[in-house]
Amino acid sequence: MEDEESRVEGLSAERGILRYCVTGATGYIGSWLVKSLLQRGYTVHTTVRDPAKTMNLLPLWGGGDRLRVFRADLREEGSFDEAVKGCSGVFHVAASMEFDVPAKEDSDSYARENFIDPAIDGTLNLLKSCSKTASVKRVVFTSSISTLTAKDRDGQWRSIVDESCQTPIDHVWKTKAGAWVYVLSKLLTEETAFKFANENGIDLVSVITTTVTGPFLTPTVPSSVRVLLSPITGDPKFSSILSAVNSRMGSIALVHIEDICSAHIFLMEHARAEGRYICSSHNYLMSELVDRLDKEYRSSNKPSCRLVEEDHGSAPSEISSKKLKDLGFNFKYGVDDIIHQTVKSCVDCGFLSPIVN
Ligand SMILES: NC(=O)c1ccc[n+]([C@@H]2O[C@H](COP(=O)([O-])OP(=O)(O)OC[C@H]3O[C@@H](n4cnc5c(N)ncnc54)[C@H](OP(=O)(O)O)[C@@H]3O)[C@@H](O)[C@H]2O)c1
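# NAP complex -> structure
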């Protein structure tokens, strides 16, 4: 027992010397990642646009003098210089979460000027700060499942979706299907980030993140949790995002917040990590997901879940985390935990009405 305690203490002391920077620390994933790193004993530099937004996060993070908060904005060149100094790795989690643009005649140029170009420039700003800092050995970029599609060139469902199944950029511009601005921002930002990293000797690894749910530290319910719960809440904005994911993937892939943060840390530290990694615990057909949510929340006597749309009626494509698992990553949470903890957290914070048995 004593041996185990001194081993853990020794590990924490070693990690305390290791310093990581996390961008977007006021967001859902960023705030949980900061907590996970501090709990594991690392020293953390977090960046936030508005330090006042950390007031209720600071007591939840803990970490004492192993935590430093920096003000930084992706839209300001050089903004991340101080925050990344002395860090051995940077988790680039921050991103604007705009999903659509107002209907306009010139929607392409509007989207480019207001959302896509700023997203690309913001990530380049961060990478430029990293390339000026010799201590930074790796950058882990939070990518999205929206960069992938389960449909092949002929519009047929693939049996397996892996990291190569990229959504064609020209198809997104042409079809402007739901959440198209977000899809393009993530696709083009990631593409530019890898190009810049290759040209400037930065070791960049990306985590293709599926819909993240479970508990949360943020004072408001995160967007991805609202998306998952939209069959219960009927919120049209988030239902339409769920529908957009479903039409591109033929199913909804989920991952627990703790697993996505562990995957980020695992990929930061694994010597052989390279390129892109899908991180998905499980994917549900839309009808299965609605059914599962209904079972979890049925005792509330609230209206049943609404089926957002028909699914394609067969077994869904497998959204494969094989590359990540082959490297040695293990998921801790199954789908039952994910759905149960998400509903419970939302009942506890008052977002969903209490369950009446
Ligand atoms: N959650 C998911 O299911 C999911 C799935 C796939 C991919 N992702 C990716 O994961 C990342 C985080 O997502 P999330 O769910 O945690 O979103 P979130 O809760 O909305 O957090 C976004 C974070 O980015 C920050 N941010 C936005 N614009 C910024 C700017 N110009 N400069 C600096 N920081 C800025 C926000 O800061 P403020 O608080 O100041 O606004 C916030 O901290 C994003 O890259 C997203 O694309 C998430």
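# post-check
The mean pLDDT is 90.
Residues 16-348 form a domain with the Rossmann fold fold (CATH 3.40.50.720).
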